[in-house]
Design brief:
By secondary structure, the chain is mostly helical. Helix content is 83%, strand content 0%. The chain starts with a helix and ends with a helix. The chain crosses the membrane at residues 30-47, 95-120, 141-171, 183-216, 237-257, 277-299.
Length: 335
């Protein structure tokens, strides 16, 4: 068995975090460049979106009219501009921020995953080379993201329908809407909530791994999701434990951000804390992407699939070949 493949196969919970730390610290330069150029702007969007929307559209964001005036003659005579143009501008702002966040997220995923693949395949890589290859890698990732969005929407609609049916059956059987749910209803809701929670966790694992598959293999969309579902078999518990820890860390970061920025009083204090939290989010996002990529290699090794340098380098050659040709053409042009 290949030494690299054997290393991944026996990598445990703590080993994954240790490997992620080692690979990040041993290649500080390129990961710092990727973080500053892509991940940090994404983090600034995360920490500043609500503050900017609150500043542009007012404290109440959509409706600048005081609630006390609603229903009064003054409110009735107020032009409809606030309920139409302001609302439209607000949602256009939210959509633009969401699109920018998605694009930066996909670019950062492509850049980090591709960089780690180059490191494991012992290929010399630079920031310039990675960022020139990213647009080509991004195509497959966009297809996968599109299908993940569709599946997510279908799942949400399905879960909503199930909840509606449960509530409808309870109302029909009881003849009225109960003020306090009975014990059987509570048990059913707890079971349903547990299933939804576990299902959400499992889907999160599959979708995260599908993004890595889309970058490192010639598989995209639904096929990437199927491949990630097969890869995760046998390592579901390990992957879930890692995801739960990362999610809890994100929750702590989010609460710290809200405590110091959202609920802060001083404007300059908010700006300073926002910058600090953006840096924290950036570093943790980078670490999370590295961990997700390592989990991919762990799952591949568990199923006996090739993870050694030669097979990985063969896949990367498809992307790097175009870069090498472009780079040589630029050198000729410069001469």
């Amino acid at each position: 068995m290949d030494t690299e493949q054997e290393k991944f196969q026996y990598l445990g919970f703590l080993g994954i975090f240790k490997e992620a730390f080692n690979i990040t610290t041993s290649h500080k330069k390129i990961f710092t460049q990727i973080t500053l150029s892509v991940i940090l702007p994404l983090s600034f969007i995360y920490v500043s979106q609500n503050e900017i929307s609150g500043f542009v559209f007012g404290e109440n964001e959509i409706s600048p009219i005081e609630p006390a005036l609603m229903g009064s003659q003054t409110y009735a005579n107020t032009p409809d501009i606030f309920s139409s143009e302001m609302t439209t501008s607000y949602w256009l702002f939210k959509i633009a921020f969401s699109i920018l966040s998605i694009l930066l997220s996909l670019v950062s995923t492509s850049a980090v995953v591709f960089t780690i693949a180059c490191i494991y395949s012992a290929r010399e890589t630079t920031y310039k080379k990675v960022m020139k290859v990213v647009p080509k890698v991004l195509k497959g990732l966009l297809i996968t993201f599109f299908w993940i969005f569709i599946v997510s929407f279908a799942v949400i609609m399905g879960v909503s329908l199930i909840i509606f049916i449960v509530v409808f059956v309870v109302v029909i059987t009881s003849g009225t809407v109960p003020s306090t749910p009975s014990i059987p209803v509570i048990i059913i809701l707890l079971i349903l909530g547990g299933i939804i929670l576990l299902g959400t966790l499992y889907m999160g694992l599959v979708w995260q791994l599908a993004n890595i598959v889309s970058v490192l293999e010639d598989v995209h969309g639904i096929q990437a999701m199927k491949k990630s579902r097969n890869l995760i078999k046998g390592k579901t518990g390990l992957s879930a434990a890692v995801l739960v820890v990362l999610s809890l860390c994100y929750l702590v970061i989010d609460q710290g951000f809200k405590a110091s920025v959202v609920r802060g009083e001083s404007v300059w204090g908010k700006i300073l804390h926002a910058c600090l939290w953006a840096m924290v989010v950036s570093m943790f996002s980078l670490f999370g992407l590295v961990i997700q990529t390592i989990i991919y290699f762990v799952c591949k090794s568990y199923h006996g699939e090739n993870t050694h340098k030669s097979s990985l380098a063969l896949h990367l050659e498809v992307f790097l070949k175009d870069y090498d040709q472009l780079d040589s053409q630029e050198e000729v042009f410069m001469v």
